[in-house]
Every structure is written in structure tokens, then in C-alpha cells.
Design brief:
This protein is α+β, with helices and mostly antiparallel strands. Helices cover 48% and strands 23% of the residues. The strands form seven sheets. It has an eight-stranded mixed beta barrel, surrounded by four helices. Strands 18, 19, 20, 21, 22 and 23 form a six-stranded mixed β-sheet that branches. The longest helix has 61 residues.
Length: 915
């Protein structure tokens, strides 16, 4: 190998030289391209910088006019006009103020010793100027594109830039501020070097019909404007491609670039000499001449190599003539060796067949030897006979189709003999002598035995694997918890039914079902209890559906029913009513017995959607509407429901913004001793006064916050504000703050509470946290640990809405409560319900024995207050004694209660002294 390389050293040297020269030339071409690209990039960057400077100037003008549109003078005029004030009695004075403001503003905006604006005017909705400064008075054409906001346009007739700011009040267009500037203001920013220099700049309108160049050098022909407007943005184009001849320089030596100016209909045209752009970059002609050197050298080396090879061929022929005699002797010797080798091969073949027969007979996998001519079994091993239940002699002579139970598999096996010349694999079934069916996988390979071509077929029993595959397929299309079809199978069946309905017509329906109150059970009782509820409801649905209906679990506590080929839309509503009539469903959760209700949304093809996704979405929308109207009912989709769902999403978005912008306000409702009516503290409440919606009730946005996870942020804000505000009251009073279940279970709540108490300097003993019974049910041990940790901080604990949840009176003994709060439903009901009165008296008596304070909320009448006094209730709260008040009024309320001397004929309040 090395000798051959050394013999060709001239060619190797030539090849190496060519490679080296080619690399140098490639680097030269690449360097030239990089230098050219860098030069073009600098020109484009400079043009973009100039365009950005012009854009900044125009942006400042937009800001100026926008500020005028929002000025106090215009706002005053519009307000007075809306109130019906006439020109004679006030509006004319307002307009004079606007004119004075416009005049001052125009005089203030000067560039290069010249006012920027020729005319500034305030127009009404009809385009009539109400107040203006500068020449050019007259009406303008309105309306203005409100959605575009503040715009900059070009007035071709007067060659002016027009900055327009629409004035919007309550989403209505009420007028506009328009400022007019001579285009020469921008011309002053353009560069135009003296004749003979290589730099020119101009402004071009979007249509290319107007060209604006510096007044000192009007060098650009306006007839070329359209061609410049068609130039691609920020790309360098040879000037000769735009205009073959022009009076500035030689077009062949010039290049042009068009750069759009931001926020305006103008573009910046820059024309520069190519010598100024590219400088003295090496000419490509020299590189092309040098590139011819490597191939010439290579061709010369090839010529020398061909001459050397011809010499070697002549020398080889001479050697060949002297070698024939030796070759004849070698062939005779080789023939003798081949005869000996063939005898050895035949012996080895016989030995190999014997070994194969031994392996075949003793192989653990069932195997057959098949005659490819008719598919008959020539022989089989013991494993195959055992698997099929025959003896080996009985199997010999049988054909493959005799042991296959399925006609189509017999066809496969009949075709198998034609494939015996190659290796094949396939799956089929075998039937044993006793009739048992086995799924099998067969691998067949051709084999020669005793000069006969046979096929050796190895059989693997895959019955268990097939069963496992069926189970996996079932799991892929069914819910693991309830064994109902899942969303995948539901979508497949819906697609099939949609295809049928499109071809043959008819209706089908999708019903979305949702368990009412499932989230509360799942959150309070735990996921295991939730699983029991879901399985119970799934079994109930199975029992309710018919053969022409499919029920599926689509996720969480949501289910769907697919009704095939219903005769009319009313049939879907009848099925929904049948399902609702079977509810509520009783469930036993190990100590808690309750009932399950449901809500249903209906969407019908084709009235409510013509594809699967739309039908499911609309059924979900109808379900949401049914739940919003009170649950336990069904609703069919209507187009207006989309708006209702969008409204909920808009409310959620507004709530997020309200939290972000701190728009949730704190209110406080006073609490009093029942017998003396002394002020004992306040309960912290929240109010949301939306700028457009007005006062949003807490019963609306608090449940929404719990659903979308915002209740943690609201709870943190309420706790921090309550402590901070109460710390500033004099004298200080106890404050009760409601605690949501999610906030109570938050792992970081205790550290957050400690941090808030420390940062606000509010005594822990004056803070009372109100928890509902629902936070105690899910994990009593964890809840007890959290309550004890709160008690160690010195915080008071109250059980809110007592008697309305899942628990009984045992919680008062098990958990360290300081006070219980009677729900207002008991306070109102006991006036006309003796049973409620008896329950309330029992709760008050037991609380007294447990040394627990009791506060009754919702006291609105003197009769209710009197009954609570007779029953021995310790504290009361309600509109009769004090409505919720803003945080800013609490201090004044405290001072007034100290000065009044008496309230309801009782002594003045004894407030808790500040610590």
C-alpha cells in the first residue's frame, strides 16, 4: 500500500496543492461576501437609526396631541355640554379656555426656531371646529377610526402631517383634536450633501405619489416615487434597477434602500454611492483568475499519472507471459483439493442433519416440518403433539388448515406453502383435539433435509398475550375507577354517529352530567370518599341507560351520555328528565349519609353544532347554565349561553385585576353584647365596587374566587388589612376574620399569620379567626393540630355558621373553640318555628356549660333581639344594631359610641383597652 502511494507522489502533491489553493480561494470568496454583508448591514443600520429618529419625533407629537385630548379644559366643556349648558351661559367660556390652552401649547412646541404646528383645532362629531389656533380654518371630514387611537396621516393637498386624537367618553366618540404640521418640519432632519457627494435622503409616502426632499437640494424626481415605494423594506437595491438615468451621479455607481418610519405612512429613502458603501473590497475578477490555477495543476498531474499507468500495463503484460506455466500447475493442485473438500462437506452435512433432528425432537417450543407442495405436516416434535393433544403419528399427514378453526386463517395457511422459499412470520389460531382454541405466532424458515426442501415452522402460544392486549385496549378506552367508557371512546363513537348522521340524516344528542356538591364532599371528606361517590353514581347511570345510549366519564365528576339516532330533539330532554327523576341518589360514606344530585346540559346535532368538539363544548355550556340556575335541572344549549359563559370569564378576569390593583375594599360590621349592647368587636367583610358593574355582591365573587383559586390571595389580603387597620384604632377592638378552607389547609398559613401579626403590631389576643365545619371533616387530626398551633399564638377561634354543615355538637367538645356563631337562618326561623327555637335554646344551654361564648348573626328586628336575650345569647350582630361600614368610618364610629352615653337605653360601650 505504501509503495503504491510513493509511486504516485506527483499526483498526491498536485492534489494537496489543489486542495490548499481551493481552501485559500474559498476563504477569499467568503471574506469578500462577509465584508460586503457587513458594509450593507452598516448602511441599513444607519438608515434604520435615521428612521427611528424621525419615528421618535412623530411619537412625541402623538403624545402631545393625546395629552390635549385628555386636558381638563376639554373635559370641562364636554361635562357642561352633557349637562345641557348653552354657548351663551358657559360653553363659550369653556371654548375660550380650550383656545387659550391650544395657543400656549402651540407656542411651546418649537423645533429649530419654528413652531411645529401650523394649526391646532378641537372638532365636534360633525367635523366642525369648535376651537382652533392657526390659519386654515374650516370643517373636516369625519368620522375618525376610533379603534386606531391617535393616528398620523399625510395631507397631500396641503403637504401637511395631520396628528388626530379621537376623544372618547363612555365608549362614545364625542370629538377630536387635530394638529397640522408642514412637512418641511421633517425635511430639516434629512441629510443632503452638496453636489458630487455620495449621500442623499428623502421622505416617501406610502403610495409613492409624494416625495419630500430637503428644500436646499431638490434632487429627486417625483416620477420615481412609485418605483421607490415598491422597493422591499431594509434591502439594498442598485439604483440602476430603479432608474436607468438620473441627474445625480452615475446610476451604475449608486445603491438605494427604503426604511419605513414607525407609526407613520412615510418611508425614508437613502441613496448612497457604492464606493462609499463597499470601499476597496477585492474584485471578484482576480479571484476568478486565481481559481483557474488548481484545476490546471490537477489536469497536469492526471496526465503524468496516466503516463505512469501505461508504463505499468506494459510491464505487467511482460510478467504475465512468463507466469502461465506456473498457473497450470496451481490449477491441477487446486482441483485435487476441491475433491477432498467436497467429501468433507457431505460428511459435515450428514452430521448437521443428525444434530438438527436431535434439536428438533427435543426443542421445548412446538415445531412442525411442512411440505410446501400441499401444506401437509411431514413431522412434528413432542411439544407440538402435546400442545395439540394428538400423538405424533396422527399429526403426520394432516394439513395445517385441519388444525385452524377460522376460515380466514385457513386461507393464510393455504397461502403459506407458496412462501416456503423465504422466512415468514404470522399469527393465527390452533384448535386442539379437545376443541380448545389457542392464539399462536408462527415463524417459518426454509430448510433442506435429505435433498428435500421443507419449511420448519416454530409455534409460540400467545393466548395470554392476546388476553393482556385486550385488557390494555379496554383500559385505554375505559375509566380506571368506574370502568365506564372514557373520553377517547366517547369521541370515537361520536365521530361514528356524526358520520352516519351526515350521510343518512337524523339527530343525535350529547348530555353532559355533573354531580352537584361533589367538590364539597371531595374537599371535606377526602378523595377516597369522592371515589366512592363517583363509583356509586357510575353504577346508577349504568342501570339507567338503554342499549341505544352510551354513558362515559369524561373527567372529575363529569359524565356524558350519547344518544344515538334520536327521533326528535324532545327525546333528549325526555332522557334528561328520566335521569333527573332518578335522583337524588343516597350514598353512605362511613358515618356520613347524604344524597347526590346532578345537573345536565344538552346539545343536539345538527341544531347545536355540526362537529364533535362544538357539540361537547355547547353541552358543557348548557350544563354550566343549569348549575348557575340552581342545580338539579337540565338545560338545552342556546346561543345566548355562550355570552353568559363569556361574562363569567370576564368577571374572573376583572376579579384578578381587582386583586392586582387593590380594588377589594374592607368593611367592618360591629358586634355587641346581647344584654347591655356594649360594643364587643367587629367582623371584617369585603366589598368589590367595580367601575362598570357597580357593587358586586360577595355571594357572587367569593364562590368564583374559590373556584379559580383566588381565595388564597383574597384571604391573605383581608387578614393583613384587617390587622393593620385595627392596629390603628383607638381604643383597639377585637376583629373577627373569616378563614377559607383552602387558606386553613395551606402549609404556610401559620408562618404567614405570625409575620402579619408581627409586622402590623396587632395583638394576637384581639384577632379571632372564624372557620366553618367543612375544614374539620377531611382530616380531623391535622385540623386539630392547626387549631392548637393558632391557640399557642394567642389567636381566638370561632366556629362559623354552626348547624348548617355536616358535623354535630361533638365538634364543640373535640376542638378548642372560644366562640360559636349561630347562622342567621336559625335567628330568622325561630320566630315562627318552635322546633328551631328548641334547637337554638339547646345549643345556647350546651355552649354555656362548655364555657363557650355565642354570637347570633343576622339580627334585624327588635323581636329577634328580645328572644335572644331571653334565651341567654351572649353577643349579637346584625342590621338592627349596626350595618357594615367602610374602614375609614370605624374610628369615627368608635368615638361616637364613646360620646353618645347611651345606646338602646343601655350604658355606653365598654371597649377593650389598647395594649
Amino acid at each position: 500500500m505504501m509503495d503504491r502511494l510513493l509511486a504516485r507522489w506527483p499526483l498526491l502533491i498536485a492534489v494537496a496543492f489543489c486542495v490548499y489553493a481551493s481552501v485559500l480561494l474559498w476563504n477569499g470568496f467568503r471574506s469578500q461576501e462577509q465584508l460586503t454583508a457587513g458594509a450593507e448591514s452598516r448602511l441599513i443600520t444607519e438608515a434604520q437609526r435615521q428612521a427611528a429618529q424621525l419615528g421618535d419625533f412623530l411619537s412625541d407629537r402623538r403624545v402631545d396631541v393625546s395629552e390635549l385630548a385628555e386636558s381638563h379644559e376639554i373635559e370641562t366643556y364636554l361635562t357642561n355640554k352633557a349637562l345641557g349648558m348653552s354657548l351663551r351661559y358657559g360653553l363659550e367660556a369653556n371654548l375660550d379656555s380650550i383656545r387659550e390652552r391650544l395657543s400656549r401649547w402651540s407656542a411651546k412646541n418649537i423645533v429649530r426656531g419654528k413652531e411645529i404646528y401650523n394649526r391646532i383645532a378641537f372638532f365636534d362629531t360633525d367635523g366642525i371646529p369648535l376651537a382652533e389656533v392657526g390659519p386654515g380654518a374650516g370643517a373636516i371630514a369625519l368620522p375618525i377610526d376610533i379603534a386606531a387611537g391617535v393616528t398620523i396621516t399625510f395631507d397631500r393637498e396641503h403637504r401637511q402631517l395631520v396628528v388626530t386624537a379621537p376623544i372618547i367618553r363612555k365608549k362614545a366618540f364625542v370629538g377630536a383634536i387635530m394638529a397640522f404640521s408642514d412637512i418641511s418640519i421633517l425635511s430639516g432632519y434629512l441629510r443632503s450633501e452638496p453636489d458630487g457627494a455620495q449621500m442623499r435622503e428623502a421622505l416617501l409616502t406610502q403610495s409613492g405619489e409624494d416625495v419630500i426632499a430637503p428644500e436646499a437640494t431638490p434632487w429627486l424626481d417625483p416620477a420615481l416615487g412609485r418605483k421607490f415605494a415598491d422597493l422591499p423594506e431594509n434591502r439594498i437595491v442598485p439604483f440602476a434597477e430603479i432608474a436607468p438615468a438620473i441627474h445625480v451621479g452615475d446610476p451604475a455607481d449608486m445603491v438605494a434602500v427604503r426604511t419605513p418610519i414607525p407609526i407613520s405612512p412615510l418611508s425614508l429613502i437613502t441613496i448612497v454611492g457604492d464606493q462609499q458603501v463597499y470601499g476597496h473590497i477585492t474584485s471578484r475578477r482576480l479571484l476568478y483568475l486565481l481559481s483557474a490555477l488548481p484545476p490546471l495543476t490537477f489536469f497536469a498531474a492526471i496526465l503524468l499519472e496516466q503516463m505512469r499507468r501505461r508504463h505499468e500495463v506494459l510491464h505487467a503484460r511482460y510478467i504475465e507471459t512468463t507466469r502461465h506455466s506456473d498457473e497450470l500447475r496451481d490449477r491441477n493442485s487446486a482441483l485435487s483439493e476441491e475433491i477432498t473438500r467436497r467429501k468433507e462437506v457431505e460428511a459435515a452435512l450428514r452430521e448437521s442433519e443428525q444434530r438438527f433432528r436431535k434439536l428438533f425432537d427435543e426443542a421445548p417450543l412446538p415445531s412442525h416440518l411442512i411440505d410446501p407442495s400441499d401444506g401437509s405436516i411431514v413431522d412434528c416434535n413432542a411439544a407440538a403433539a402435546t400442545m395439540l393433544g394428538y400423538d405424533r403419528d396422527s399429526l403426520r399427514g394432516m394439513r395445517l388448515m385441519d388444525i385452524d378453526p377460522i376460515a380466514q386463517n385457513r386461507e393464510v395457511l393455504w397461502r403459506a406453502p407458496s412462501l416456503m422459499g423465504q422466512s415468514v412470520q404470522f399469527e393465527t389460531q390452533h384448535q386442539t383435539r379437545s376443541g380448545e382454541i389457542h392464539d399462536v405466532a408462527i415463524a417459518s424458515v426454509p430448510i433442506d433435509i435429505a435433498r428435500r426442501r421443507l419449511a420448519c415452522m416454530t409455534v409460540v402460544d400467545i393466548t395470554e398475550r392476546k388476553r393482556a392486549e385486550k385488557r390494555i385496549l379496554h383500559l385505554a378506552h375505559h375509566d380506571a375507577l368506574t370502568s365506564l367508557p372514557n373520553r377517547i371512546l366517547l369521541n370515537e363513537r361520536m365521530a361514528e354517529e356524526l358520520h352516519r348522521a351526515r350521510r343518512h340524516g337524523g339527530h343525535f344528542a350529547v348530555l353532559c352530567l355533573d354531580l352537584d356538591g361533589f367538590k364539597a364532599i371531595n374537599d371535606t371528606m377526602g378523595h377516597d370518599a369522592g371515589d366512592v361517590v363517583l363509583c356509586t353514581f357510575a353504577d346508577h347511570l349504568r342501570a339507567m341507560i338503554r342499549m341505544d345510549e352510551l354513558v362515559a366519564r369524561t373527567g372529575g365528576d363529569e359524565f356524558a351520555v350519547l344518544l344515538y339516532n334520536i327521533p326528535h330533539p324532545k327525546a333528549a330532554e325526555q332522557v334528561a328528565q328520566r335521569l333527573l327523576d332518578s335522583l337524588p341518589l343516597s350514598v353512605d360514606l362511613g358515618g356520613y349519609s347524604g344524597t347526590l344530585g346532578g345537573s345536565i346540559g344538552i346539545a343536539i346535532y345538527p341544531e347545536d353544532g355540526d362537529d364533535c368538539a362544538t357539540l361537547q363544548k355547547n353541552a358543557d355550556t348548557a350544563l354550566y347554565r343549569a348549575k348557575a340556575e340552581g342545580k338539579g335541572r337540565y338545560r338545552r344549549f342556546e346561543s345566548w349561553m355562550d355570552h353568559s359563559l363569556a361574562e363569567r370569564r370576564a368577571l374572573e378576569r376583572d376579579l384578578r385585576l381587582a386583586i392586582e390593583h387593590d380594588e377589594i375594599e374592607m368593611y367592618f360590621q360591629p358586634q355587641f353584647a346581647c344584654d347591655t349592647l356594649q360594643l364587643t368587636g367587629f367582623e371584617a367583610l369585603v366589598r368589590w365596587d367595580h367601575a362598570e358593574r357597580g357593587l358586586v355582591p360577595p355571594g357572587v365573587f367569593i364562590p368564583l374566587a374559590e373556584e379559580c383559586g383566588l381565595i388564597i390571595q383574597i384571604g391573605r389580603m383581608v387578614l393583613e388589612k384587617s390587622c393593620r387597620l385595627a392596629a390603628a384604632w383607638r381604643p383597639r377592638c377585637p376583629v373577627a376574620v373569616n378563614l377559607s378552607p383552602l387558606q386553613f389547609r395551606d402549609s404556610g398559613f401559620l408562618s404567614l399569620l405570625s409575620s402579619i401579626l408581627e409586622s402590623t403590631d396587632f395583638p394576637a389576643s384581639l384577632l379571632e379567626l372564624e372557620v366553618t365545619e367543612g375544614v374539620l371533616i377531611k382530616d380531623e387530626e391535622q385540623a386539630l393540630g392547626t387549631l392548637r398551633a393558632l391557640k399557642e399564638l394567642g389567636v381566638q377561634i370561632a366556629l362559623d355558621d354552626f348547624g348548617t354543615g355536616y358535623s354535630g355538637l361533638s365538634y364543640l367538645r373535640s376542638f378548642p373553640f372560644d366562640r360559636i356563631k349561630i347562622d342567621k337562618c336559625f335567628v330568622h326561623a325561630q320566630e315562627h318555628d318552635a322546633g328551631t327555637q328548641t334547637i337554638l335554646e339547646a345549643v345556647l344551654a350546651m355552649s354555656k356549660r362548655l364555657n363557650l361564648r355565642v354570637i347570633a348573626e343576622g339580627v334585624e328586628t327588635e323581636e329577634q333581639l328580645a328572644m335572644l336575650r331571653m334565651q341567654g345569647c351572649s353577643e349579637v350582630q346584625g342590621f338592627l344594631l349596626g350595618r357594615p361600614m367602610p374602614a375609614s368610618e370605624v374610628q369615627a364610629f368608635l368615638m361616637s359610641t364613646m360620646d353618645d352615653g347611651e345606646r338602646y337605653g343601655q350604658p355606653a360601650p365598654a371597649l377593650v383597652a389598647a395594649k
